[in-house]
Amino acid sequence: MKPARVFIHGLLGSSGGAKAAFFRKRYPDMIIEDFRGLLDKRMETLNRLLAEKGPLILVGSSYGGLMASIYTLGNPDKVRQVILLSPALAHREIDPYLEERTDTPVVIYHGNKDDVVPLGPVYENAHRVFRNLTFNTVDDDHVLSKTFTRIDWDMLLER
Question: Which pTM was predicted?
Fold first, then answer.
């Protein structure tokens, strides 16, 4: 069964943002939803959205990366792969999940010039919870303005 592809935007993002527009154009079947409110409300929306779906490939950007990580740690059998873009894994809301582990394949792209989400804690927390991790530190900023469109999305999303 072909996995459902899901994009989860960041805290201030939306389904109408630049990354969402990129995915919508290239992958018209990709699930792209708006998430609002605090983490609990956002996770409730995500859980409801994905309740009857699977397997899944999740793409999470910034706060959406935190959400994708939490979802994967709670539903490892549903998630085939996760791609995280400058994930907010330094945010204190990841703390309750730092004792969890998953073998789900995870690919992270994080800029070394990210002034929103610090690279060090993200690197440490990602290596703590993801056993099957590819961590790419790139010469870029938080939004990955130089890197995002250069990622081989076809390869990552066709698994």
Answer: 0.95
